[in-house]
Amino acid sequence: MIKKEMIAMLLAGGQGSRLGVLTAKVAKPAVAFGGKYRIIDFPLSNCINSGIDTVGVLTQYQPLRLNSHIGIGIPWDLDRNIGGVTVLPPYEKSTNSEWYTGTANAIYQNLNYMESFNPDYVLILSGDHIYKMDYEVMLDFHKASNADVSIAVMPVPMEEASRFGIVIADDHNTITEFQEKPEHPKSNLASMGIYIFSWKVLKEALIKMSDVNGCDFGKHIIPYCHENGKKLVAYEYNGYWKDVGTLGSYWEANMELIDIIPEFNLYEEFWKIYTKSDIIPPQYISSDAKVFRSIISNGCEIEGDVENCVIGAGVTIGKGAVVRNSIIMKQSIIGEGAVIDKSIIAENVEIGRGAVLGVGEEVPNKVKPNVYSFGLVTVGENSYVPANVKIGKNTAISGITAPEDYPNGVLESGETLIKAGEIS
Predict the structure, then answer these.
(1) Which of 165, 252, 293, 417 has its CA 20 to 30 A from that of 119?
(2) 366: buried, middle or exposed (CB in 10 Å: 19+, 13-18, 0-12)?
(3) What secondary structure letter does DSSP report for 219?
(4) Minimal CA–CA distance to 30: which of 21, 44, 22, 40?
(5) What is the DSSP letter of 69?
(6) DSSP letter string over 328-383?
(7) What 3-state DSSP class applies to 275?
(8) Is the dihedral of CA 28, 245, 78, 280 positive or negative?
(9) R_g (Cα) of the chain, nearest Å
(10) What residues pair up with 178 in beta bridges, in sequence order?
């Protein structure tokens, strides 16, 4: 009989709709981050750095790139005969076929998978946060507290607390109350969506709550355990943790990587971030190029000026082009003389010669003001922007666009240009 002390279940099925065109064709955990990584690399690396060698990755929305990225888990040393990494999509059952309808429902549908490892503890993780955390330390805390459920929490500024699920705990870290996005929060401890359950407690709660539509950990499972006398404790975490769920926070987290002393360090020897790396040649920077305070990945060819940027693998930046305060993902081409400011350009995009992105006044986006904000230009993958057009702020572009899509050669601030057949 296989026996694992703790296994991890990583929820990676989310669309991340607040990332707009960036997640139109790819699940949020598979979005590029920091030049060479994808968001899911961070929780996966945390697992292997914490000594967890059995991880179930639950996928659903647009899983193709995620599946091929994870493969059999070689980069994370998760290609094991027993355990390792397993991708768990929804599947056809004999009575019906069901999509995952909530975070807990997704875990419930994989009871057999968990059961096969006979674990003492199950760690529940979200696939879309950027952080480093030793789950082993949290497990020690769980055991020492004699807890049934441990919830990782982090202190947030009181004025921001109403954006989170808040937990109220006593002096012994025992949780006494929950508030879901409260108007008047009683504490500033925000739940991070990271849970350790004692296996029997989790199994019982999932089975009991299996009929609840859209069954969710924060809304259903945790309150069920609390109401039924289980011991819930708050594990306080004080390191760097970023939910990159909006274009603004995603852009900010990338930009923080290039600070003189980055708050989040990708270069620590003792806590490596692992990823699947393509076999590509080294970068080339020409004598005409100027590069200042930027991350430049392998395979790039740079002939223009780059300042405060995160540049993915295989990107080409043409002569005379100027790229500032931007994220350019892999295999994209910036034409000669183009000027790019405060933009997020997804994979395999071509920006024509002399195009100017990020000009003019900042006005709210007309279609999705709460998605396309922060003064950014966002270009979805496989898009084409023709030569010499001007693009304003808080704009989004997706698809192969032509000069006639830009009245007088301009896409005004706040406009969205999604070609027919593209997903917005």
Answers:
(1) 165
(2) middle
(3) I
(4) 40
(5) H
(6) E-TT-EE-TT-EEESEEE-TT-EE-TT-EEEES-----SS-TTTS-TT-EEE-TT-
(7) coil
(8) positive
(9) 23
(10) 167
Q: Are 396 and 21 in contact (CB under 8 A)?
A: yes
Residue 94: pLDDT band by 50, 70, 90 thresholds? very low
Closest to 236 (Cα-Cα) out of 293, 286, 284, 174: 174
pLDDT band at 97, cuts 50/70/90? low
Tokens of 120: 């003492």
Amino acid, single-letter form, for residue 16: G
Report the distance separating Cα 256 and Cα 265, nearest Å.
Answer: 9
Contact between 247 and 372 under an 8 Å Cβ cutoff? The reply is yes
Query: For residues 251 and 372, is the Cβ–Cβ distance under 8 A?
Result: no
More confident residue, 7 or 210: 7
180, 256, 247, 131: CA torsion to nearest 10: -40
Q: What are phi and psi of 76, to 5 degrees?
A: -100, 10
CA dist., res. 250 & res. 39, Å (int): 10
Identity at 222, one-letter amino acid code: I
Q: How many other C-beta atoms can be found within 10 angstroms of the C-beta atom of residue 13?
A: 24
Closest CA to 398 of 26, 61, 58: 26
State how far the Cα of 358 lies from the Cα of 375, in Å rounded to an integer.
8
pLDDT digits (tens, 9 = 90+) for 168-225: 999 999 988 888 888 888 999 999 989 999 999 999 999 998 888 888 888 889 989 9
Lookup: tokens for 283: 């970068």
Q: What is the pLDDT of residues 241-259, one digit of tens each?
A: 888 888 999 999 999 998 8
Element (H, E) at 118: none
Tell me: pLDDT of 344 over 90: yes
Lowest mean pLDDT among 236-245, 324-333, 382-391: 236-245
In 343-360, which positions are buried (b, 16+ CB within 10 angstroms) versus exposed (e)? bbbbbebbbbbbbbbbbb
Alpha helices in 228-332 (DSSP H): 247-256
- d(Cα 400, Cα 383) in Å, to the nearest integer? 5
Structure tokens at 91: 């599947």
